[in-house]
Amino acid sequence: MRALEQYDVLSDEERDALRALPLRTRLLQKNEEIIREGDRPTHSCLLVAGFAARTQNLEDGKRQITNLHAPGDFVDLHSLLLKRMDHNVIAFSDCEVAFIPHGALRELIDRHNHLSRLLWVTTLVDAAIDRAWITCLGRRPAIDHLAHFICELFTRLKGRGLNDGNSILFGATQVELGDILGMSTVHVNRTIQDLRKLGLIDWEAGRVTIRDFDRLADRAGFDPAYLNQWVEPR
Amino acid sequence: MRALEQYDVLSDEERDALRALPLRTRLLQKNEEIIREGDRPTHSCLLVAGFAARTQNLEDGKRQITNLHAPGDFVDLHSLLLKRMDHNVIAFSDCEVAFIPHGALRELIDRHNHLSRLLWVTTLVDAAIDRAWITCLGRRPAIDHLAHFICELFTRLKGRGLNDGNSILFGATQVELGDILGMSTVHVNRTIQDLRKLGLIDWEAGRVTIRDFDRLADRAGFDPAYLNQWVEPR
DNA sequence: CGATAGCTTGACTCACGTCAAGCCCGGTGG
DNA sequence: CCACCGGGCTTGACGTGAGTCAAGCTATCG
């Protein structure tokens, strides 16, 4: 509910409708698969706690993460309409998820036009994030790319109240970061060190601290507008 | 209408509703801006003929294209809900577009749940394409990336009946291709030549001919499933 | 007290970018 | 009808950002 309220206000009736959704929750360990490519899910999965990642695996064993998800995100809302998964979703950390039957979601969106639009918005914001990742991958050097990713992650988490001052808890290994940024592990390591040396961030034991957000954002060319974090009639 | 029918069947009533939409068409020359970053459009733009591209410009003058659109695609349906454009859309070739007032679209989706879902699907497929681009950019070498792009473009156009046997008409310059693939112009040139030498494609004067789709797709690791080109209740 | 996962470092390689020049072709103007 | 021009394509020489390989270091865990 909080996730949807980032984009527009909810009526009491809409809140009730959301509360009435049947949930089946589950705890997952880091790296457990939530959904596999090729699946035809009958439920959509809402992330309650922890991080989840969409991944695509290549023939030669390489892996690319195409988006990350934070608590409050629907991780596969699109399977409601696309039916067949074209990628995997895994638990990126230990996490808690809630499964909601497609039937219930379908009724919800058929009855509540405004809620339906807000759910649509969440998938559109995911797409906006994908576009930003494409631009970073295609046209930014590694250090700017990493800086952009940190800005984005921090801003997204802050939007949900999941930051801790200038820090966030984000327990990704450097191998995983490589899969996010499309770089080798070694280069991830060196790039983090570059940002550290510039006095822009600290990164230790799963805690990322931003020492100077403005300078970091400036280097990254980060403009948070694409995250659509404002309330507006939609 | 044909674009929506790729994903599910339409009822006569739905066709009528679509036909009743008020259109204002316009001809645009290659490189004309259709919508600019920061705009708050009051109309959404449907591409009728030609190609359009979403672009993001960096501070230092670099440019990245984040998606291409073919006739039948809505180029900024998301502005109906996101309100503010986070990127530019330009005419990638001379093209014809139709503008539809947001008010009319809004009524359409509020009245016709099934149409609303199908329009949602089109934005979800765009997102699936973005994910494929991310994976190509992050983890594939240039030649595989180009091969994948050609497979995707061909398959998308074929889905609309816009292919010409094994060829498609696609008048992009090598500079523009570089902006699509996130590579330098020189490297685009050499990569095209590599594919030519392998006997996989011809590319001359705006006509791309696929000499062996299976081998091309195999090299690219291309699996068309993510394009969702099949009819199914949605 | 090994075993293991993750981080760090150095040496080397290579894919791709940059720079610069030449070529081809169609369009324009004298 | 020709000279000129500019855009797009091609090529070679060279530089560099990032990948690969391999080793050592550190912290955590049984």
From TrEMBL, chains A, B:
Gene3D superfamilies xref list: Jelly Rolls, Winged helix-like DNA-binding domain superfamily/Winged helix DNA-binding domain
Name of the featured protein: Crp/Fnr family transcriptional regulator
Gene Ontology molecular function, alphabetical: DNA binding; DNA-binding transcription factor activity
Cited InterPro entries: cNMP-bd_dom, cNMP-bd_dom_sf, Env_Response_Regulators, HTH_CRP, RmlC-like_jellyroll, WH-like_DNA-bd_sf, WH_DNA-bd_sf
CDD domains: CAP_ED
Residues covered by the HTH crp-type domain: 140-214
Coiled-coil segments: none
PROSITE patterns cross-referenced by the UniProt entry: CNMP_BINDING_3, HTH_CRP_2
Positions of the Cyclic nucleotide-binding domain: 23-109
GO cellular component, one term: cytosol
SUPFAM superfamilies per the UniProt record, alphabetical: cAMP-binding domain-like, Winged helix' DNA-binding domain
Keywords carried by this UniProt record: DNA-binding, Transcription, Transcription regulation
